[in-house]
């Protein structure tokens, strides 16, 4: 079966890593159906093998580098 994958929704704070329970930043959608969620740490450990198996990877780990505006900056 071929075709485009349905768009995936962004990961939220409610999405948890299947290995350790931390906040998930990586979603691996498996070609046979289903998905696995990983924190950035466990995602880095498993992402290469998952890609080799044909998984579609949604990696939002770059969000870890974002910094919220501090209250002082907002008051200026």
From TrEMBL:
<feature type="region of interest" description="Disordered">
    <location>
        <begin position="52"/>
        <end position="76"/>
    </location>
</feature>
<dbReference type="Pfam" id="PF24254">
    <property type="entry name" value="DUF7455"/>
</dbReference>
<protein>
    <recommendedName>
        <fullName>DUF7455 domain-containing protein</fullName>
    </recommendedName>
</protein>
<feature type="domain" description="DUF7455">
    <location>
        <begin position="11"/>
        <end position="64"/>
    </location>
</feature>
<feature type="compositionally biased region" description="Basic and acidic residues">
    <location>
        <begin position="52"/>
        <end position="63"/>
    </location>
</feature>
<dbReference type="InterPro" id="IPR055878">
    <property type="entry name" value="DUF7455"/>
</dbReference>
């Amino acid at each position: 079966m071929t075709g485009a994958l349905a768009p995936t929704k962004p990961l939220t704070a409610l999405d948890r890593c299947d290995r350790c329970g931390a906040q998930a930043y990586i979603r691996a959608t498996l070609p046979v159906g289903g998905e696995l969620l990983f924190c950035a740490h466990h995602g880095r450990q498993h992402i290469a093998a998952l890609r080799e198996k044909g998984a579609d990877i949604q990696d939002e780990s770059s969000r870890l580098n974002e910094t919220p505006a501090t209250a002082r900056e907002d008051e200026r």
